[in-house]
Amino acid sequence: MSAILLARIQFALTISFHYIFPPLSIGLAWIIFYFLWGNLRESRKGNASSADLYLKSAKYWIKLFTITFAVGVATGITMEFQFGTNWAQYSRFVGDIFGAPLAAEALMAFFLESCFLGILLYGEKRVSPKVYCFSALMVAVGATISAFWIVVANSWQQTPTGYHLVNGRAELLNFWDAIFNPSTIPRFLHTIGGALSTGAFFVLGISAYYLRRAKFKEFAKKSFSVGILFSMITSWGMLFLGHHHTVQVYKTQPLKLAAFEGLWESRTNAPLLLFGIPNEKEHRTDYAITIPSALSFLVAFDSKAPVSGLNDFPKENYPPLITTFITFHLMVILGVFMIIFSTVGFLLWKLSPDAFLGEHRKKYADLFLKIAFWSIPVSFIANQLGWAAAEVGRQPWVVYNLLKTSDSVSVSVPASHILASIILFSVIYSLLFILWIFFLRLKVNKGPEV
Fold it and tell me: Which is deepest, 162, 220, 284, 306, by most CB within 10 Å?
């Protein structure tokens, strides 16, 4: 295999593995803050037992957060090294642009998160409850700010602004235009929504596991109620955030939208594709099931709005159509599942919580709890599919319409060296994943502190 193909594989491997952990860390951080805020609220009301339950819940999820955060930090380091090894031409082109957001991520976010994480881990008995709760807030804020600066850098590649070209490289011309490029806010909100959903389904699934086994009942009830509420809110929120992001893609990356939808001919009253298979040889989508005019309406709120088709663009600029199409539609399918599942679960829980508990558990409730546990990976998979659709859909450009991926690779690194590093990374990541699962399972089996 060529060096550029192996470099692509290595980058996809490292970033997809790393991206397992930050969404869960962000989602759990905000849920932990919610529990500690609940502890303060109940303490002020004089409800000691309820306050203690909120605190116990927070301490339990802090342990799982810490394990995830540690692995996430370890796996994030390798990505930065790749820029200087496998992607030297890319680093030269974007270095002046990326320096500011990556430095801001380290100084403004990572240090903030790390410092207050120390208080969250070791300060419960050393600081006041208010300071302890504030530390959880700062960890959540730090994780979210960190995501913002990373999304800024990636979004600039999708919709570059605030730069000018000097001697074949992009140089920063306007800091704020580069930071708030057209895709930054839609992509950031979509990313954070996915992270919150991941944390919510994680809490929901583990709480469902405890409820099915009638273990740690009070803790499980409280965490389940929080998980199902957050799951429903974030799932519905992702519907609107995803739509907002799609409108941005329609305006700034029409070729990517055409690939998402398998739309070959530009047209008004563009249909929304529910099912189909792109046929690149014959420039059509086979077995298409569509909703007439729906795509035009969704992206422009006008059923007669024109939408560009693939045939309007040079074929050499097409992204890998099948991969782009399938990852996008699978992400949507999983999103719909999460909306339906969480909404049904929330209604069932609110109407009859006893149906989920112990000897009074109904068959439908037992089935829901079982599905909830096995649905923990769904949001992780949806995040991965969303990332793949966005990044593969940008190809063949690494910086949209400015720098092609084929022109970004390091020319001096032989393919054999990249292959060796892929094998090494695969072994290390496999061990890290096994250790992550092992320690999570250990903590789950042990349960919350009594």
Answer: 220
C-alpha to C-alpha distance for 255 and 246, rounded to whole angstroms: 12
Considering Cα of 267, then 269, then 274, then 276, what sign does the dihedral take?
negative
Q: Are 161 and 181 in contact (CB under 8 A)?
A: yes
11 and 90 Cβ atoms separated by less than 8 Å: no
Kindly report, residue by residue over 139-169, the tens digit of the pLDDT.
999 999 989 998 998 999 999 999 898 888 8
Tens of pLDDT, residue by residue over 232-265, are: 999 999 999 999 999 999 999 999 999 999 999 9
Structure tokens at 354: 């006893």
Closest CA to 34 of 183, 139, 109: 139
CA distance 235 to 337: 9
Please provide the size of the chain in residues.
450
Mode of pairing for the β-strands spanning 403-404 and 397-399: antiparallel
Query: Which of 138, 160, 186, 172 has its CA nearest to residue 29?
Result: 138
pTM: 0.93
